[in-house]
Automatic annotation (TrEMBL):
Family annotation (PROSITE patterns): ADH_SHORT (PS00061)
Organism of derivation: Corynebacterium doosanense CAU 212 = DSM 45436
A molecular-function term among this protein's GO annotations: oxidoreductase activity
InterPro entries noted in UniProt: NAD(P)-bd_dom_sf (IPR036291), Sc_DH/Rdtase_CS (IPR020904), SDR_fam (IPR002347)
Name the record gives this protein: Alcohol dehydrogenase
Keyword Oxidoreductase annotated: yes
Regions annotated as coiled coil: none
Keywords assigned by UniProt, alphabetized: Oxidoreductase
Keyword Aminoacyl-tRNA synthetase: no
Pfam family, one: adh_short
PANTHER family: NADPH-DEPENDENT 1-ACYLDIHYDROXYACETONE PHOSPHATE REDUCTASE
Protein family membership: Belongs to the short-chain dehydrogenases/reductases (SDR) family.
Length: 279
């Protein structure tokens, strides 16, 4: 099958943004609504649309719980009843931290269902319509930790590495049908996510002290990180670039860190990341 050198750029149709009630998702949804020269019908998701106190003008918000397969099926059916999705931004997720030894199985299962399997399920349900239409853009929102692991974030790192793997591998599968898949890896972002992070650690156990050091540094880095709007700019680039790249990144000195990682030994890069967090 011929692989098109450039991809069609969607300018209308349904644009789905998961996790659009705050942070990156809200910034992306608002940017899509206000994007000049386009007529996207932007649909954001949240677990409880009734809880949104400051709705974004022009963005419709529907219920979606990525931990519930029946919710995913119902949401996908509702989207397809309304039309063909041309943009899908898989953004919703959980941030989790804890030493590997102390991570409960139920926490791991919830994290992977939310950050990986739920998004793959949704993508599988919407992809046939996009393929039939002959165009579309899918953006998997990962994290720079998926490329540069940090101690005590192993479950989160693994989930973001997994979503990147799906995106990179499937990219070639769908490109002949005019569909682009890209991965966006934000670094430290100032979105208040640190207050919602789930943590699993015995504070008095063998890892408690170093975990606390890492977490304090992590929260400080995020409080001075890039804005959600800056990350949204990169996500929109992944949506609009004719020659879409596999990977986009913003924050945490991304323009320096990624080239440096191609020069320095992997162990050195891991040491740098851990030292930046006090380890």
């Amino acid at each position: 099958m011929l692989i098109p050198p450039v991809l069609p750029v969607p300018r209308d149709g349904i644009a789905v943004v998961t996790g659009a009630s705050s942070g990156i998702g809200a910034a992306v949804a608002e940017a899509l609504v206000n994007l000049p020269g386009t007529r996207f019908r932007v649909i954001g998701t949240t677990r409880d649309p009734a809880s949104i106190t400051n709705p974004i003008e022009g963005v419709e918000c529907l219920a979606l719980d990525l931990t519930d397969p029946s919710s995913i099926a119902s949401f996908a059916h509702e989207i397809l009843e309304r039309g063909v999705p041309s943009v899908l931004v898989n953004n919703a997720g959980e941030s989790q931290a804890g030493p590997l030894e102390e991570l409960p199985r139920e926490a791991l299962e919830r994290l992977f269902q939310t950050n990986v399997l739920g998004h793959i399920d949704l993508t599988q349900r919407l992809l046939p319509a996009m393929r039939e239409a002959g165009e579309g853009r899918i953006v998997m929102v990962g994290s720079m930790l998926g490329s540069f692991p940090l101690a005590f974030r192993s479950s989160y790192v693994a989930s973001k590495a997994a979503i990147k793997g799906f995106g990179f591998a499937a990219r070639r599968e769908v490109r002949p049908f005019g569909i682009g898949i890209a991965v966006m890896e934000p670094g430290s972002i100032n979105t208040g996510l640190s207050q919602r992070r789930t943590k699993y650690v015995d504070a008095d156990g063998p890892y408690g002290r170093e975990f606390d050091t890492m977490l304090r540094r992590l929260d400080a880095n995020e409080s001075s990180g890039v804005s959600a709007e800056r990350v949204a700019e990169e996500i929109l680039a992944a949506v609009l670039d004719k020659r879409q790249k596999p990977l986009y990144a913003a924050g945490s000195l991304a323009p320096v860190v990624f080239p440096l990682s191609r020069i320095l030994p992997r162990e050195t890069m891991h040491r740098v990341i851990n030292r930046r967090h006090g380890l």
